[in-house]
What does this fold into?
Amino acid sequence: MPNRRTSIMWPSPRLLRHACQITLFTRANCGLCTQAKQVLSNVWDKRPFEYQEIDVMAAGQQAWKDLYEFDTPVVSLSLFSLAIRLEAYKKKVHIEKSANQDGPLSRGSRKLMHRFIETDIEKLMNEAEQS
It folds into this structure.
């Protein structure tokens, strides 16, 4: 039996390759938003991802309000290279987590709007990881 202090756990190749970040654009008193949160929670139980929630009606969110006020809930999925994230961490560089970032840390953003189910989210994650 290996010594617990010396045994090393290696991340899976999939984890090393990509990390999904899902941003939910939501608003208060939105029944579809509540359903979307439950769908995302169910997916996360099977397949963890980074999660960020943005209330488009909150103070300081005018850009998101202009974009999504009448489209909530919106799920935005981005892939980030873990190698780039680790390098940024080592350099103590802040990685902006906004879903609209398509810069060097992001590999494109995919979106679902209004009504979706768990398989829609999983399909989006699969497509993003295979691109």
Summary: Residues 31-46 form the longest helix (16 residues).
